[in-house]
Amino acid sequence: MSETAQVVRQPLPVGSAGKLSGGWWGMMALIVTEASLFGYLLFTYFYLAAQTVQDWPPGGLPSLLIPGINTVILLGSSVAFWVGERRIRQGKAQSSIFGFIAAIALGSAFVAIQLLEWRNKTYSINSDLYGSLYFTITGFHLCHVIIGLGVLLLLLAWTMMGYFDHKRHVAITIGGVYWHFVDVVWLFVFSALYLSPYLHRG
Amino acid sequence: MAATDATQHRIEPLLERIPEVGRIPAGSAIEARLERIWETAPGWRGWLSTVDHKTIGVRYLVTAFLFLVIGGIEALFLRIQLAGPDMAFLTPEQYNQLFTMHGVTMIFLYASPVLSGFSNYLWPLLLGSRDMAFPRLNALSYWIFLFAGLFMYISFPLGQAPNAGWFNYVPFSGPVYNTGPNIDVFALGMVLLGISTTVGSINFVVTLFRMRAPGMTINRVPILVWGTLTASVANLFAIPAVSLAFFLLWLDRQIGAHFFDVANNGQPLLWQHLFWIFGHPWVYVVVLPAMGIVSDALPTFCRRPLVGYTAVALATMATMLLGFGVWVHHMFATGLPTVALSIFGAASMVISIPSAVAVFAWIATIWLGKPVFKTPFLFFAGFVALFIIGGMSGVMTAAVPLDWQLNETYFIVAHLHYVLLGINVFPVVGAIYYWFPKFTGRMMSEKLGKWSFWTMFIGFNAGFFPMHIAGLLGMPRRIYTYPSRMGWDEVNLITTVGSFIFAVGVLIFLVNVVLSLKRGAWAGANPWDAPTLEWAVSSPPPAYNFATIPTIASRHPLWEGRIEGEREHSRTRLEEGYLLMRGRETLGTSPIDAKPVVILKMPEDSYTPFLVGLFVSLLFVGLLLHSWTFTALMAASSCAALSVWMWPRRKLGQRTTGYRSASAERGGESP
After folding, report:
1. Which residues form the Cytochrome oxidase subunit I profile domain (chain B) (predicted)?
2. Could you give the CA distance from residue B78 to residue A13 in angstroms, rounded to a whole number?
């Protein structure tokens, strides 16, 4: 407890230096609260599914093909972004642009396929309980993907404007971890809505 | 050592430097420069754009107190109606709206924001920093709180205020039984307020881990910081539950979803789970920082450090941890399985252990100290007494069989008012008396202070203790009147008289605030001879807080060398420290042992928080009015304002400096 306070004299990084920046810590806290939100959404799903007297899901087991492909696409987007970020860390900001463009393209493909999947459903948010759950949960996730795509577009623009190099690119690190989070959340949503009915029925 | 380090690195001055150390004498030219760096522009520009945590803290306090007064007046209306049997002062619908808004106002718009006010003002001063981790987020948090408060009152003048109680149970709050805009205003307002609470909590959490003065290791932070930190971490986990519950309810009401719709396999009990998973931690959110206030301020008036610092800090966190596992005690009468009731009943009783640790620590501090009976001490001591009464009735209702008897009676109303007023309002008023000199530079009147305490304390007990008896006599909550033959007449009349005496006490306090603002005696930097860091700076503190970042060596930097048994070489440095004045700068330190790790660049004042807050709030207005184009427009405006806010800036070290370093030349292009 007791010592003479020492003033340290050594060089310290200045400003938003990677994971020393406030923004990185703030994003971690945001992810905690967002993860809780999805936790409560899935709690709602399983709570209502467990209490219902209907067949569950009411329309029979969901087809896994298109959502499965879409899952791979979204994970691919995360990988592409990770590659781009790695290029920046290596001091190759120009070539990172291709990684970010690929990430945005794959993310947009996910949104398009998800919207098609929505259109093919025979139920809607207000048709029955399952429809309410399905569209609310996937809708929450889709909103996050769209916001994430907006973030990625900004990051791409900033990279093209030459804002970042291997020393300073904290926006990429923070935006990137959000994008990875959105992708990981999808794995939970996918497991709950598409895979868990098979466990239950099997 | 410094010299060798400097030669080993190729220092790029914008990205890395050795922080300058020195002294800044009061009144020097260098101090004037620091003042210019941190000051807020005068006039409306500064008013809308300031990010100074002290200004934001005072705004939180003033706004929260306005809501306290509004909620209090609503309560007085309710008490007039209940003063005697068969009264017709209010219609049943008016009564419903008033008791709902009373609860909403007190619990959401007063109890937590007032503590955010103290913490916003005090945290950087307690921690030895120049601002919070995210000054602009801090401003956003306030604006959204203000707008959410106004939003929830938007339908009040139309006679369409929320009317289903502050916990808003379905199906009564659902689309079938509640067709007006009343509940939609509440639902959307709560989601909006949740944004404010969440960003505020993120700010506190990151501030604690990043912004402490060097040497302020984790076991040296004041208990108020522990309390607010615990509450903030809890908010991150709990707020999504209530925001989601209200959003799902809004979907049920406006889009035709079926989450709580029994006719279509929905479950009303889902509402209660989601609400109380949030609601019980929230109880601790509105009391733990207030308990922290007492743990820090009471020792000043006992002339000795808090007894059992470590135990109290751990008890604070233990209370919250257990607080996440007791939500079902609000649902004992809903027909859940007996096993669940037993587990949650037991957990609810266990929570009394950490609470008792804190109570005994306060009593021991008074016992072992030399109490000075100033007004703040009276409020803090009164708080301990009320906490014990409220805690006892809490343990009683944790017992499932007794709860079945007491549930939905005035006993619960008595319990929750003892807890919320006792543990929140009394410490808060005491804290205003305590920190008023720091906020304003003036002392509050002791004479009026003692009058306000005794009037409030007597009025409170006269008003709320008889409610226990009303509850034991079987008087249900939320009834707008009662017949005379029930035997509830006397207790209700006494309660009403007591509540008005209490209101007079609050009025004396407010008069004291106004008079002292104008005529209070000048306070020095440390009028109470208190031990903590906020008293090291002038009253009111300068815009930059600390001229040099201090280096901390103990829990009570201003009492060093005066405490028996303390090793003598424990020495905090307050005069000499890091200068950090190339623009707005402060020191970032490591999370546990507070070693300097980074020089943080702090943002200037900015309009973006106000604009983002405004656009987001208008977005909710759009949702309320079903105006989807307007909603989309506001969403786009919010995103645009956020992009401006987040735009990477060279000045803050967020962009490349264009400096050609050796590795960049080797490895690739430098744009």
Report:
1. 38-553
2. 59
